[in-house]
């Protein structure tokens, strides 16, 4: 019976417990060792479930730290999916899981109206009643979502090379400028960009909130589209570490029949830009005055660290002449997608993020930088400092240098 998971590799050393940001700040959560491999033995015998599973933020710090290579977070997420089959997720969780659908509905109305509908005191009280904290800063819909901004943008005619962009639902609805800055950089490096309509949310918010069937449908659509491009030898690039992690490490575990070769479909967009710089396709002019003496503090999202392939965003910022870059190195921001928006988890999320907020505030930086959309939301909420994606900072630099 004990199969498919790495449960038996656990030697109960508790390293994961020490590294779990949720276990550090609340006793409501049993912790990775107990809820993961220890409880899994009972769950596999159909003898045990624990509602504190919903307190796992799926931040992956347990996986990063485990010396035995136990995939604790995936054990937890599979257990949570099984739990959600028996205990229907709440309406609140449905709303937080289906942000992409809501952004499509919101797109029917002017963004100001849609945002007012979400952010005015009366709506905040209603949201609070259904379990979305009124203290949380929910992301705001952009006035022009990515699909519309991309359609209105004219790419240079003479581009001979091509890449495909998988934007993820956050960039699509809330941060289209990040996506357009990426398109601008790729064009400048000589690549025409395709943005297929068929791409939908990678499924992370769906799966982690208990909607595994919906996550599966999205995986089917996304993988079918990605396969088409892969067969033509064209790279598909992502800017969000959570999307990348979903395809590379989670889908093959959650839906092995669909995504056994998931790792080969999606590539890191920042690594691609770094490759463009090293191949001379994208020229960084030295010395450059556009960013002279500007200070940036960088936060590495947990899901980027979980990918284990370095920090291309930090490297990219480091390549900008004149810019002073430091890394916050202060762990998890606490948001974990929609986790920190939940009423019962808001305070936990802010307590987790407090070290990072302090590190950013102490840095006296002009700007914070990170790749993950909801980390950005949390950093701005916890520090009142502006925060940008590294590709936007590089684009800003190159554009200014050209003037
Ligand atoms: S770190 Fe790994 S081996 Fe140690 S208790 Fe946690 S899951 Fe088990
Ligand atoms: S995924 Fe994060 S919150 Fe969940 S058990 Fe692991 S370290 Fe803790």
Describe this structure in words.
It is a single chain. The protein has 403 residues and is an alpha/beta fold. The protein has four domains: 7-86, no CATH class; 91-130, no CATH class; 146-275, 3-Layer(aba) Sandwich (Rossmann fold), CATH 3.40.50; 285-402, Rossmann fold. It has 22 helices and eight strands. The chain has helices at 15-19, 21-25, 32-44, 61-65, 72-86, 91-97, 99-106, 111-119, 121-130, 146-152, 168-173, 176-188, 204-208, 212-231, 241-254, 256-259, 269-278, 302-307, 312-318, 346-362, 373-383, 390-402; strands spanning 161-166, 191-194, 236-238, 266-268, 295-298, 324-327, 367-369, 387-388. The protein has a four-stranded parallel beta sheet with strand order 2-1-3-4, with helices on both faces. α19 (312-318) runs parallel beside α22 (390-402). The radius of gyration is 21 Å and the shape is globular. The mean pLDDT is 91. Bound molecules: iron/sulfur cluster (2 copies). The site of one iron/sulfur cluster has 15 residues, from α1 and α3. One iron/sulfur cluster (SF4) binds next to α1 and α3.
């Amino acid at each position: 019976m004990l199969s498919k998971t790495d449960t038996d590799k656990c030697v109960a050393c508790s390293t994961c417990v020490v590294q779990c940001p949720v276990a550090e700040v609340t006793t409501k959560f049993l912790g990775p060792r107990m809820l993961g491999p220890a409880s899994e033995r009972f769950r596999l015998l159909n003898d045990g479930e624990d509602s504190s599973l919903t307190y796992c933020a799926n931040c992956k710090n347990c996986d990063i730290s485990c010396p035995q290579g136990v995939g604790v977070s995936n054990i937890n997420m599979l257990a949570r999916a099984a739990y959600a089959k028996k205990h229907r997720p709440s309406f609140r969780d449905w709303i937080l899981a289906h942000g992409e659908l809501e952004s499509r509905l919101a797109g029917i109305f002017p963004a100001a109206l849609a945002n007012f509908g979400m952010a005015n005191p009366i709506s905040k009280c209603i949201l609070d009643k259904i379990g979305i904290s009124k203290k949380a800063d929910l992301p705001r819909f952009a006035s022009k979502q990515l699909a519309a901004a991309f359609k209105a943008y004219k790419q240079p005619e003479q581009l001979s090379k091509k890449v495909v962009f998988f934007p993820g639902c956050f960039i699509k609805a809330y941060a289209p400028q990040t996506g357009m800055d990426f398109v601008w950089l790729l064009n400048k490096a000589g690549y025409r960009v395709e943005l297929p309509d068929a791409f939908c949310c990678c499924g992370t918010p769906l799966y982690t909130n208990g909607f595994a069937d919906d996550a599966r449908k999205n995986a089917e659509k996304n993988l079918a589209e990605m396969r088409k491009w892969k067969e033509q030898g064209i790279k598909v690039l992502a800017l969000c570490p959570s999307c990348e992690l979903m395809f590379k490490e989670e889908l093959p575990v959650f839906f092995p029949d669909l995504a056994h070769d998931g790792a080969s479909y999606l590539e890191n967009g920042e690594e691609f830009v770094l490759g463009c710089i090293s191949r001379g396709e994208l020229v960084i002019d030295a010395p450059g005055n556009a960013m002279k003496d500007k200070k940036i503090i960088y936060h590495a999202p947990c899901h980027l660290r979980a990918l284990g392939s370095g920090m291309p965003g930090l490297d990219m910022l480091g390549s900008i002449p004149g810019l002073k870059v430091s890394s916050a190195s202060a762990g998890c921001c606490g948001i974990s997608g929609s986790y920190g928006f939940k009423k019962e988890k808001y305070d936990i999320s802010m307590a987790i993020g407090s070290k990072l907020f302090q590190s950013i505030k102490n840095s006296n930086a002009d700007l914070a930088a990170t790749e993950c959309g909801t980390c950005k939301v949390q950093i701005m909420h916890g520090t009142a400092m502006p925060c940008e994606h590294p590709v936007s900072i590089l684009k800003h630099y190159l554009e200014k240098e050209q003037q």
